[in-house]
Amino acid sequence: MDTAAGAQARLPIRSDMDLMWVRQHVRQMAAALGFGLVDQTKLVTAASELARNTLVYGGGGTMETTPLAEGGTPGLRLTFRDEGPGIADLEQALQDGFTSGEGLGMGLGGARRLVHEFAIESSPGAGTTVRVTSWVGRPPLRREEV
Amino acid sequence: MNEAVPWPLPGPATGHVPVLRLGDVLLVTLQGDLYDSTAEQLQRDLAEAIARSGAAGVVIDVSGVDVVDSFLGRILAEIAGQARLLAARTVLVGMRPAVAITLVELGLTLPGLRTALSTEAAMELLTGRAWPARSGGRHRGSP
């Protein structure tokens, strides 16, 4: 898909240097699509959490960025894929404070609160795919919905 | 009055954040995006610098940082924790509003970290003395 903010792109996530590229790329795309400063910061932070999960728990993978447009509203979709061990208990993994490694256990649950749409597919041995989407100018989700 | 605290030079692959000494306070300024390894290196450097200098306080200026995720948040909290064990207090300065909003939504309020809006206010907090405000700063309570 081609839009003013550029085409779909796929970035590798193999090192903490790649995490920096992920943050820079998401920041640039979000700014080009017209996201305000606070929403840019939320998206970049969510991307950083999810990319780090891909790196640390998934053993590396990719992030795909897809600019969207729905009824004239621009949006940005980020898809994180790894072929790591997968997650057996998704409910547990989405809870705050749950961690199997370093960090504060805010990765998945925290990232979900920073975006408008959040989807995760995973099963043991089959890797993990996390897809998040945010829309320009849309208010944040109410807490009860997250 | 400004004097760099010496420590081992990092290898070529790691970034390096300078630690300045202002009286008995160590001052660190974070700029832009950090590698994970740079943040971890800073955490180790600061522990050594505090122990070596006997500093009573650490001021970390994050006004140049546009993203704090849970990893960097954990490093900042751990820096404050280890400083406290080494008899020094840590004050985080100049967080951008967008970063503060995001951290709270993320669920990371960093309760153990003392904060101030300007470096002068942080120095005052740590030393109990008034510091000269820069013009245009958000310093409050200057004599």
Automatic annotation (TrEMBL), chain A:
<feature type="domain" description="Histidine kinase/HSP90-like ATPase">
    <location>
        <begin position="38"/>
        <end position="138"/>
    </location>
</feature>
<protein>
    <submittedName>
        <fullName>Anti-sigma regulatory factor</fullName>
    </submittedName>
</protein>
<dbReference type="Pfam" id="PF02518">
    <property type="entry name" value="HATPase_c"/>
</dbReference>
<dbReference type="InterPro" id="IPR003594">
    <property type="entry name" value="HATPase_dom"/>
</dbReference>
<dbReference type="InterPro" id="IPR036890">
    <property type="entry name" value="HATPase_C_sf"/>
</dbReference>
Automatic annotation (TrEMBL), chain B:
<protein>
    <submittedName>
        <fullName>STAS domain-containing protein</fullName>
    </submittedName>
</protein>
<dbReference type="Pfam" id="PF01740">
    <property type="entry name" value="STAS"/>
</dbReference>
<dbReference type="InterPro" id="IPR002645">
    <property type="entry name" value="STAS_dom"/>
</dbReference>
<dbReference type="InterPro" id="IPR036513">
    <property type="entry name" value="STAS_dom_sf"/>
</dbReference>
<dbReference type="InterPro" id="IPR051932">
    <property type="entry name" value="Bact_StressResp_Reg"/>
</dbReference>
<feature type="domain" description="STAS">
    <location>
        <begin position="15"/>
        <end position="126"/>
    </location>
</feature>
